[in-house]
Q: What sequence folds into this?
């Protein structure tokens, strides 16, 4: 089986880190956890499961993950978030893939993921399959330089696997809403940092009014968010609000800097 490095960045993830490592460990040759100042049992849990723990002050989402990739010693990397747990079916699919002579036909593999809010799986409303590039050749993939919603940029072809992982991202809907507000602020800052020619295109009424309304309609009705009941309605509303907040916060940044 092709040797693989499991790399994870984490801070205060004691609730999930044990499951993340335990589910992936049979597939990998090493486990590397880059910790940015955990005050809970995250590092100890990881060490007990055989992980090499490296302390690194937070560099930003992309830079921190690229730092972790740089510490990998194997030609293939499995880069997981500290709340992404491989299912048994996915582990079996990965094991067969890593033992296959066809593994190298692609430079990276995307893994579908099921979002969990608390103990409830959210499988409608545009939240699934949400496939993420997680397994890739070390010399072919790096996270792009973004403040938020970082993603791996590949030099070569990729393929999406069939089986999903579980994404235990939020304890409840309120935590999801707080995260969306944080991401909206980071997105606005990223738009602003790209310069006036870029962000001016974002400031029109289409993006602040029409786009959020369309997002709600698309996610709640067309993508079946209503099938998730009351949570589906809340999530569609929060996500459409996030789309509008990105532009509202961008307006705030432009006004603040115009006064300087």
A:
């Amino acid at each position: 089986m092709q040797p693989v490095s499991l790399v994870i960045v984490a801070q205060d993830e004691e609730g999930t880190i044990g499951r993340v490592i335990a589910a992936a460990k049979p597939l990998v040759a090493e486990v590397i956890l880059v910790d940015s100042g955990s005050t809970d049992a995250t590092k100890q849990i990881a060490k007990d499961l055989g992980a090499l723990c490296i302390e690194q002050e937070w560099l930003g989402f992309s830079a921190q993950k690229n730092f972790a990739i740089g510490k990998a010693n194997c030609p293939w990397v499995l880069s997981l978030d500290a709340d992404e747990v491989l299912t048994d079916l996915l582990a079996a699919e990965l094991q067969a893939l890593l033992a296959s002579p066809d593994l190298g036909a692609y430079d990276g593999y995307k893994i579908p993921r099921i979002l969990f809010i608390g103990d409830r799986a959210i499988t409608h409303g545009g939240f699934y399959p949400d496939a993420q590039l997680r397994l890739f050749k070390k010399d072919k993939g790096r996270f792009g330089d973004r403040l938020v919603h970082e993603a791996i940029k590949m030099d070569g072809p990729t393929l999406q696997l069939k089986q999903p992982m579980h994404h235990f991202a939020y304890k409840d809907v309120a935590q999801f809403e707080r995260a969306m507000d944080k991401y909206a602020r980071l997105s606005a800052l990223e738009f602003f940092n790209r310069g006036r020619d870029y962000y001016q295109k974002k400031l029109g009424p289409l993006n602040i009014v029409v786009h959020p309304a369309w997002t709600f309609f698309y996610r709640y009705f067309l993508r079946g968010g209503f099938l998730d009941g009351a949570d589906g309605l809340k999530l569609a509303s929060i996500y459409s609000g996030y789309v509008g907040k990105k532009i509202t916060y961008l307006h705030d940044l432009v006004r603040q800097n115009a006064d300087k």
Summary: Residues 251 and 257 are 10 Å apart (CA to CA). The chain has two domains: 4-170, 173-258.
